Amino acid sequence: MPLPISSIEQVDVVNLLGILLSCSFCFDAQVCNVPKLCSQRVYLLKLLRARDQGLSREQLHTVFLALVVSRLRCALPAWSGFLKTDQTGQINTFLKRLYKYGFSCQLLRLETLINESDKKSIP
Hints:
Layout: E1 13-16, E2 19-22, H1 28-49, H2 57-73, H3 76-79, H4 85-100, H5 110-121
Antiparallel strand pairs: 1-2
Helix pairs in contact: 1-2, 1-4
């Protein structure tokens, strides 16, 4: 290992294009961070669903795909293999709740998103 350079800050986790990567090349921080980011975006969906905005379920579904599902799919083939069973369950419960609240027209499951992402990444 080269000697550390005092003018360069060393960090344990770095954000590379929205993906959190740790110094040990694992994605634990990413796996923990994605559900938090998605939950924060639900607030906007709640505002858009409010009666004064008047968005239909189809329109909310489009915004849901853009704000939440796109965040889940970001580099999903790279970090999905690091998910634990309880983390997968939490994300599926989160997606089910958003469907129940009317933000999505179809019930999505994380396993489906992973399979779709894997198929699209194969040349």
